[in-house]
Amino acid sequence: xxxxxxxxxxxxxxxxxxxxxxxxxxxxxxxxxxxxxxxxxxxxxxxxxxxxxxxxxxxxxxxxxxxxxxxxxxxxxxxxxxxxxxxxxxxxxxxxxxxxxxxxxxxxxxxxxxxxxxxxxxxxxxxxxxxxxxxxxxxxxxxxxxxxxxxxxxxxxxxxxxxxxxxxxxxxxxxxxxxxxxxxxxxxxxxxxxxxxxxxxxxxxxxxxxxxxxxxxxxxxxxxxxxxxxxxxxxxxxxxxxxxxxxxxxxxxxxxxxxxxxxxxxxxxxxxxxxxxxxxxxxxxxxxxxxxxxxxxxxxxxxxxxxxxxxxxxxxxxxxxxxxxxxxxxxxxxxxxxxxxxxxxxxxxxxxxxxxxxxxxxxxxxxxxxxxxxxxxxxxxxxxxxxxxxxxxxxxxxxxxxxxxxxxxxxxxxxxxxxxxxxxxxxxxxxxxxxxx
Length: 437
Known about the structure:
By secondary structure, this protein is mainly alpha-helical. It contains 21 helices and no strands.
């Protein structure tokens, strides 16, 4: 009889706790503590490992990017962006569907978090799409899929974590994700002709209260651009500063927060003390959830390393086939299936220690692989049964998660096809990295 070691028992216990609906962070922590007890280690070591897991300078980017995104939602920056893009592209075939896709991509360069993007811009986009003739389910599905790309479009919290775990340049990951992220947005636009209602976009004045109604198109475009200018400048400030070397990605998160405070408080004058308090509380809760997972994932990863599960499982993965494309397909399937049941952060901490040695063994570029991982995990955000974006969208639209999932299905298929293209053509991710070197 083959004996199952503490490491493998830990993994089985983790999935059992998840099935019992124990929160992810505590499932990680309890299963890791059980394994450490079986291995003969004390709780004093656990405290040291938890501290070491979160005491990384790069991780400071996470709470500040979350706070920056929350501030930009609460100060009206999101609403101004939607008005501008509605005037700019809302008259195209697809109407508010095109607007919703573009705003989701743009907001991804502000928020960095899929569920946060759904909560911040979802209600306004869904309302506009409904008034343009779209079903509520399809509108919610588009927002789910578009907001999921927030973890692909830089600056991305997911890419920050991948860079920390894989010890890869976060700046290079941000650069590499730009074109694949935009390409994934194009796959969503390709879906719109099949679901858009007849005549969508022909009457812009009836969508969301329009302060520019009655003006000529040029005047409407100029007024909407002027009103949203400081918000539209946000990605330029963040990404321009990173790529020019003025500040690091971690410092960029703090710059984004200060910028949002200045725009909301001094320029738009929409940031009240009450709104600031509510925003800080919201961001603190979201940050605590993420960092608790990171802390307990440190314990989980330590057990995986000590028990040499990395060597065992990665060797087994390499023995499945001699064809690297077959192995890549298997890894992507593992990530997609894991993303159906767990959030992106947990999936990375559990799977990356095992698949990264395979990546190095096969000579894959870690920057390209990081972008692939992010796209996989973005798709997981809209895949039942535990697609986080689906739950958030169901909450803001007051419809069942099953209806939201059906509405998101066309976009799910499109993004899967887009994932295949990004995997088949690594140059799509890497040429900007090489060009900017």
